[in-house]
Amino acid sequence: MSKGLKWGLISLAIGLVVVLAVGGLSIYRLQQNLTTSPLNLGNGEAGDDGPTDILIMGSDTRVGEGNDQYGEVEYGNGDGRTDVMMLLHISEDRENVSVVSFPRDLVVDIPECTDPESGKVYEPMENAMLNTAAENGGPGCTVATINDFTGLSIDHFMLADFNAVTELSEAVGGVEVCVNQPVDDPKSGLELPAGVSTVEGKNALAFLRSRAAFGDGGDESRIRSQQQFMASLARKVKEEGTLTNPGKLYEIADVMTSNLHVDEELGNVTRIVSIGGMMANVDLSHVVFVTAPTQVYEPDPNRLELDETRAEDLFQTLRDDRSLAQDDASATDGSEESATPDSASPSTAENSETPSADQTDEESVLLFNAADIPVEVVDASDTDGRAEDLVKVLQDAGYTQATEGDSIDSLPGTQVVYGPGWQSAAEQVAEELGIPQGQVIESTDAETVVKLEIGQDFTSGDRMDLDSAVPEGLSGQTAEQFTCQQ
Question: Which residues cross the membrane (predicted)?
Fold first, then answer.
C-alpha cells in the first residue's frame, strides 16, 4: 500500500466550501488562481442539463510549495495519486446533495486515456487500483473511470493538495471533531483528548491523515473520519453565517482556489457562480455522505471491489436523481451489518441466545430478546433526569436489564457503544430509540456490553428527532448528525 498521507476530507471540504462560497462575489482574482485541464480523458461526454456531478479528489503529491514537508512519494513522477475520491451529486431541483466516497484501494477497470499535454495514449487496464487512474494522463482519467463503472456523466472535477486542508481549516477558524478515547499517534503527529476538540492547520491535517489512531487503520475508518469532518464543517459554515459574510467568503475562496486544479469549464467565472447558487439553500438534513458498497477482492485481501448488487442500486439512485435522504425519522442509516437480518426489531427477536464475548461479528448474527440485553444508560447531555427517563423507556420496551450509570462529560451526539459479540444487540437498542446506525460504535473496552451515551442531540422524547437518515444498507451519515471517531 502507498505510504502517502491519508488526509481524508481535504478535498471534499474544499469543494463544499468553494461551491458555497463564491456565488455573488467579485471573483476575477479567484479565476486567476485556478489551474485547469480537460474534464474527461476517455471517450465519454458530460451532460449539460439536470443534476450536477462533481468529482472531488485529493492528491498525495509532494510537488508544490509546502507539500514537500510531508515526505517523498515512492511511485510515479511525483504528481501523486488521488487517495481521496468523492462524488458530489447536486440534484436537479437543488434540494438534495449526495456525497459518495470511493476507497483508494478499490480495484476497477481503467479505460483508455489520452494525456492532453503529450498526446500519449494509455492502454486500458484491468483490475487496477482506482487511485492510480490519474497517473494515466491526469485527473480526467479518473473521471473517465468513474463514469464507466457508475454509469454517470461527471460534469466537473476539483483536485486539491495537502496545503488545502491546513489553509482551509485556518480560514474557517477550526473544525470541531470528536474522538471516543485519547489519541496519541506519532506517525501523523495527532494528539487529542477524549471528547470534542477543535482542530485547524497542521492539527486538522493530522486528524485526517491519521491511520493508526482509528479503527483498523483501513479505508472504512479513514472515510468515517472524512465524513465526520465534512459534516462538522458544513454545520459550522451554515450556523455561523459564513455564507452571508462576503469578506469571509472571499478569504476562504481565495485560499482554496489557490490550491485547486479544476476542469476547464469550472475555471470559468460564470460556471463557478452558477454552482454556488445550486448549493445555497440545501438543508443540512438533505446532505448525505455514504461510502460506495464494497467487498474484499478475493485475489488480494488487502484490496476491495464493488459489491455489484448494492453498488448498482446506489448508482441507479443517482442516475435517477433520487435523494439518499430518508425523511422517515424512524429509518436508520444501517451499516453493511445492519442491513442483514440481525438488525430486526427487538420485539421480533424470539428464542435467541446471548453471545459469548469472544464471538466474531459473523458468529453473532443472532436475534436478541430485549430482556437478554444489559444496557447501561449514561447521561452526556447535561439534562437532569435524562438517563432515568430513557431507562424507563427501555424497560417499558422489554429491556428489563437497562440500568442507569454515572454521567460523563457532555457530548454533542448520542452514541450506542458495544463490546465484542454485542453489535447486533447494540443495533437493536439504537433502532428502538431511533438512533442512526452511524452512531453505533465498537468499544475498545472488552468489558463493555451495550452502553447508551445520551448526547445533546437527544435531550427529550422517547426517540431521536432527526429530519432524515441514510438508507438502510449504506454506511454513512447526514450533515445534521454529530458522530465521534473510535
Answer: 7-28
Consecutive H or E run containing 177: strand 175-179
How many residues are there in the chain?
486
Between CA 373 and CA 28 the distance in angstroms is: 61
**Among 18-22, 175-179, 278-282, which stretch is predicted with the lowest mean pLDDT?**
18-22
Alpha helix (H) ranges present in 212-264? Answer: 219-239, 246-257
Mean pLDDT is lowest, of 66-80, 193-207, 434-448, for 66-80
Asked whether residue 72 carries a pLDDT value surpassing 50, the answer given is no
Highest mean pLDDT among 143-152, 240-249, 466-475: 143-152
- Alpha-carbon distance of 82 to 57, in angstroms, equals 6
Domain spans of the chain?
A: 10-319, 337-466
pLDDT in tens, 89-100: 999 998 999 999
Q: Is the pLDDT of residue 13 over 80?
A: no
For residues 115 and 122, the answer to whether their CB atoms sit within 8 Å is: yes
Q: Cell numbers at residue 22, please?
A: 463564491
In the CATH scheme, what is the homologous superfamily, with its name and number, of domain 10-319?
LCP protein (3.40.630.190)
Q: Grid coordinates representing 358?
A: 469472544
pLDDT at 197: 93
- Sequence-distant contacts of 409-412: CB under 8 A, at least 24 apart: 409/195, 409/380, 410/380, 410/381, 410/382, 410/455, 410/456, 411/178, 411/195, 411/196, 411/380, 411/381, 411/453, 411/455, 411/456, 411/482, 411/484, 412/176, 412/178, 412/196, 412/455, 412/456, 412/457, 412/482
- Alpha-carbon distance of 230 to 208, in angstroms, equals 11
CA angle 40, 43, 47 (to 5 degrees): 65
